[in-house]
Amino acid sequence: MSKTLFITGASSGIGAATARAAVAAGYSVALVARSEDKLDTLVSELGEDHALAIPCDVTEVDAQVGAFEAAATRFGKIDAVFANAGLGASASGTEKGDIENFRTMIDVNIFALTVTAKLAIPHLKASKGHLLLTGSRAGHATLPGSVYGATKWFVRGYADNLAAELSDSGVRVTNINPGMVDTPFFDEAKPDALRPEDIAGAVMFALQQPPNVSVPSIQIYPMR
Known about the structure:
By secondary structure, this protein is an alpha/beta fold. The chain has helices spanning 13-24, 36-46, 61-75, 99-127, 147-165, 196-207, and strands at residues 4-8, 28-33, 51-55, 80-83, 130-134, 172-178, 217-220. It contains 6 helices and 7 strands, in the order E-H-E-H-E-H-E-H-E-H-E-H-E. It has a 7-stranded parallel β-sheet, sandwiched between helices.
C-alpha cells in the first residue's frame, strides 16, 4: 500500500507542486482547498487512483473533520500531513493594513493550522507519520508592523512546540520556511523568486529521510 499525504492549500502553488512530486514518488494524495474546480483539474492530471479532491474551507472545523475522515476512508491511513494553507497581507504594516485582512490571515495562518495539526495527530501517531507546516522567511525576520510576518513567527514557535509534544510518539515535525516564491500568492510574477517545485523538493526531502532522522526546519531562499 502506498503512503498517503494530506495537503491543505493544495489547489495551486506550493500545494499543487507538492502533490505532483508526491505522486511521482509513489504517494497517494488527499487534496484539500476551497477551489473545487482547481482540485478536480489536478486530480485529472494526477489520476483518480492516486489523488482525492476534498473541497474544504480550513477555517471551518467541521469541514476539516470531514476532510480527514474522507482521506482516511479512501486511502486507509494518513502517513503525512502538510499544513500548507495560508494567506498574505493586502497591505504592508499595521497602520496601512486592513482589519478584516488581519482577521482572515489569523484565521487561516494560525487558527486553521492548529486545527489541522490537532486533527492530524491521531492519524500520524497510528502511522508513525510526519507533520509538515508551511512557515516563511518572514518568521525569521523583522518586517515593520507585519501581521503576516507575525503569523509566521507563530508557525515557527508552534512547530517547535508540536515537536516537543510529539517527541515520544514517533511523529516527526518539520517547519518548511520558503523565501519569496512565484505563486498565485502574489498579484504579479516574481521572476527572481523560487518556484513552487523548489519548495516541493524540500518537502519531499524531509519526508524521505529514514525513520531515525528528524528534520525540524528547512530554510529555502532564492539566490540573489
